[in-house]
Amino acid sequence: MSFTNLKELIELAEKEETTIAEVMIKVEIEQGGHSRSSILDKMTEQLEVMIDSVRKGTESPVMSRTGLTGGDGNRVYEYAQSGNSFVNPQTLLVLSYALSVSEVNAAMGRIVATPTAGSAGILPAVLVHALDSGKYTKEQVAIAMFTASALGLVIANKASISGAAGGCQAEIGSATAMAAGTLVELAGGTPVQVGNAVGIALKNSLGLVCDPVAGLVEIPCIVRNGLHAITAQAAADMALAGVRSVIPPDEVIVVMHEVGQNMPESLRETGIGGLAGTPTGKRLKEQVFNKK
Amino acid sequence: MKYQSAFEIIGPIMVGPSSSHTAGAVRIGNIAHQLLNEDPVQVTFSLMGSFAETYEGHGTDLALLAGVLGLSTSDERIPIAKQLAEESQLEYNFTKKNLGDFHPNTVLVELKGNTKEVKLLGSSIGGGKVEIQELDDFPLKFSGEKPTLFFNHTDQKGVIAAISSTLHQHGYNIARLALERYKKNGPAIAICEVDDIVESDLLPLLKRAIPIIDEIRLVQTN
Question: The whole model's pTM is what?
Answer without folding.
Answer: 0.89
